[in-house]
UniProtKB/TrEMBL annotation:
It is found in: Lysosome membrane. This is BLOC-1 related complex subunit 8. It comes from Pipistrellus kuhlii (Kuhl's pipistrelle). One of its GO terms (cellular component) is lysosomal membrane. It comes from the Eukaryota. InterPro entries: BORCS8.
Amino acid sequence: MEEPEMQLKGKKVTDKFTESVYVLANEPSVALYRLQEHVRRSLPELAQHKADMQRWEEQSQGAIYTVEYACSAVKNLVDSSVYFRSVEGLLKQAISIRDHMNATQSHSQELPPSLL
């Protein structure tokens, strides 16, 4: 056999061999095996991330509840300012009555008993 003919046959054999290896390497069962390996390696990390996210969500929900409760309390304080003004007016009135009573009582103690 001549040299070019040998090279041609060698090239055909290597091409067929390369094609066979390519088909074998990319066979669906190999692809599924690689996918399974990937899932097995990455699943624990993904599960940990999920658990972290759930924990952060719970903490966030707690913080949101706290802020909403505080806003509600502040709104209720603002709404109750009318009542605080009313109580303030009543306290001033009570202090005024007390002062008047004290003044009347001290004035009556200065008078002789016959004038009472």
